Design the sequence.
């Protein structure tokens, strides 16, 4: 049993640590704009569209930071301005779950993802929101899990960790991608034969979108100026609420895991749901119980530069 587990972990390391030079990805997002939402999904999408290492095969949207309708509108706005050179059009944006109640209910997003997986392409699935869309697809078509080359999650924490951000914030940040659909995550943790890479949000705390960086993006051209204006309320809220220079780019690290995994060394851990302090929490632990996964434990120097270079870069046609 131990030998089989060791072989599995070595295989996961090989798959996730050395992705092909050009990976086909499916991005699932709860992207939204506005003063009460977080917009790091939007920047992660631009980062992906500017990364020649990634071939975006589709984008599914869901509830989370806002409504699924608002998420779709935000993603379409990004794709219309940044997608052409990457070969991504608005027809590749698919509406998914409107709430956790849509788990196991077919949507345009789940059917489009299934159709792409049936093409026998090995996909890297980058989950920037709750897992409702992915697990609905795999609940309806379980054999398609074999077509997933890897799943990248931006979630989890180590046992006992409480993530705090800012100089005067006494409250830990919630693990939103997990909390918004716990049953979908629970179903995901039962999967087999799917390599998983987990990016804990704590590593992005120092990766902040400051006003100076936002101004630099805005100066890159009309599309970037539009994006910067959409993001300014989010930046102002984090500066006022938490006393930080700018909001962290949590999802930027998740996208970097797909395009440049060499910047995010991982170790084998087990991911599971535990009931702590009266509620469910998602933790990563070395104790042998839960889903076998590769969990990021550090960020290599230069990762921040790559992310901001990709945000500013003008993509070339593929």
Sequence:
């Amino acid at each position: 049993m131990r030998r089989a587990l060791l072989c599995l972990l070595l295989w996961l390391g090989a798959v996730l640590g050395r992705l092909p030079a050009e990976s086909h990805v499916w991005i699932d997002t709860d992207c939204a704009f506005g003063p009460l939402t977080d917009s790091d999904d939007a920047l992660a999408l631009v980062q992906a569209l500017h990364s020649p290492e990634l071939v975006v095969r589709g984008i599914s949207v869901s509830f989370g930071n806002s409504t699924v309708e608002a998420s779709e509108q935000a993603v379409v706005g990004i794709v219309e301005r940044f997608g052409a050179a990457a070969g991504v059009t608005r027809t590749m944006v698919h509406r998914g779950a409107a709430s956790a109640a849509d788990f196991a209910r077919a949507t345009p997003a789940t059917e489009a993802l299934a159709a792409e997986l049936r093409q026998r392409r090995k996909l890297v699935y980058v989950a920037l929101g709750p897992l409702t869309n992915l697990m609905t697809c795999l609940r309806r078509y379980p054999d398609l899990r074999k077509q997933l080359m890897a799943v990248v999650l931006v979630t989890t924490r180590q046992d006992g960790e409480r993530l705090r951000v800012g100089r005067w914030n006494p409250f830990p940040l919630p693990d939103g991608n997990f909390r918004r659909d716990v049953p979908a995550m629970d179903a995901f943790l039962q999967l087999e034969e799917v390599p998983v890479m987990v990016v804990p949000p704590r590593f992005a705390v120092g990766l902040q979108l400051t006003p100076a960086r936002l101004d630099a993006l805005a100066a890159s051209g009309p599309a970037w100026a539009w994006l910067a204006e959409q993001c300014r309320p989010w930046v102002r809220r984090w500066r006022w609420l938490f006393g930080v220079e700018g909001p962290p780019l949590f999802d930027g690290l998740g996208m970097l895991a797909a395009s440049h995994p060499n910047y995010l060394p991982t170790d084998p851990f087990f991911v599971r749901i535990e009931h702590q302090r009266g509620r469910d929490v998602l933790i990563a632990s070395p104790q042998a119980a839960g889903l076998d996964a590769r969990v990021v434990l550090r960020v290599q120097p230069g990762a921040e530069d790559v992310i901001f270079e990709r945000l500013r870069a003008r993509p070339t046609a593929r």
